[in-house]
Amino acid sequence: MRMCGKWPIGLTSWSYKKPIGEFLSICSALELDHAQIQLQPALKGDKAWLQAVKDSGICVTSTMLNYDWDDYTNHETIRRTCGITPDEHWEEARDIFARAVDMTVELKSTCILLHLGFLDHTNPEVSAKFKERTRTIADIAAKAGVTILLETGMESGAELRQFLDEMDHPALAVNFDPANLMSYQKDTPMPALDALFPYVRQVHAKDTIPSPIPGHWASEQVWGDGVVNANFFLKELERRGFEGFINIEREHGTNPVRDAGLAVRRLEAFA
After folding, report:
1. Which candidate, 182, 251, 245, places its Cα nearest to that of 222?
2. So what's the pLDDT on residue 123?
3. Which of 2, 183, 221, 230 has its CA 20 to 30 A from that of 89?
């Protein structure tokens, strides 16, 4: 097991856009025995996907669900289409989520990572509907002993903390991605960590250089090469007593396998 301090290091399967066997081979080559596993292929009928993960013996720190209608073209398309927000997809989103929870249990994981959609505290009607839908899927997860990890980025840490406090649901927690916060131009890592730490269960090791233009995507970087201030961030996790998993997410770049290997070495060097 490769460790960053006392935290097991894992890898995100969706970063590689490869068949599951190839991804598991990457994990093996990097000597990583933890991973976050995307569920889309299995949800679309690829029965071998789940079986390969089970046969590998890898520890699934969490599964990950996103929806076919999620449009990540830019910030505005995400706001309109992502997660449980679109009315025309709500019932389908709920049913897919329930299937994803069953698969999460099948993989012996207790967490599922999900982009719910943008929070809107300014419109009471929209906010009430969003909370009702969130509670519906959180209840589904809770009955199966699964926790939903909400990904940071689409709102500030304070806004997400407000939402979680208002929901007050035991099946809701946070996957903290320090790069996403700056990529969406919503927050910076330390204030967000201050706000969200009681809910943080897992962390993404991902780095970035934000765009100077509002609404434009940032430039994702290898862990340690961006503005997250990687070592300071890890020290802050340690100071607060973080006890979860760190998963390397590298979605861009010309050689994500090489970049993941570099990230592993940098994480292991943390002291």
Report:
1. 251
2. 83
3. 183
Give the three-class secondary structure for 248.
Answer: strand
- DSSP β-ladder status, 207-209 and 200-205: unpaired
Query: How high is the pLDDT of residue 271?
Result: 66
* Distance separating alpha carbons of residues 255 and 188, to the nearest angstrom: 27
Helix axes 256-268, 20-29, angle to 10 degrees: 40
Query: Average pLDDT by consecutive 10-residue portion of the chain (271 residues)?
Result: 96 92 96 97 93 97 92 76 90 97 98 89 87 98 98 91 97 96 87 97 95 78 95 97 96 86 96 66
DSSP string, 98-164: HHHHHHHHHTT-SEEEE------SS-HHHHHHHHHHHHHHHHHHHHTT-EEEEESSSS-HHHHHHHH
For position 226, what pLDDT does the model report? 95
Please state the φ and ψ torsions of residue 245, each to the nearest 5 degrees: -115, 150
Q: What's the pLDDT at 20?
A: 95
CA distance 61 to 243: 13
Residue 81 in 3-state DSSP?
helix
Q: Which 3 state secondary structure label does DSSP give 195?
A: helix
Cβ contact 181:222 at 8 Å:
no
For the chain, the maximum distance between any two Cα atoms, rounded to a whole number of angstroms, is 50
Dist. CA 102–CA 90, nearest whole Å:
19
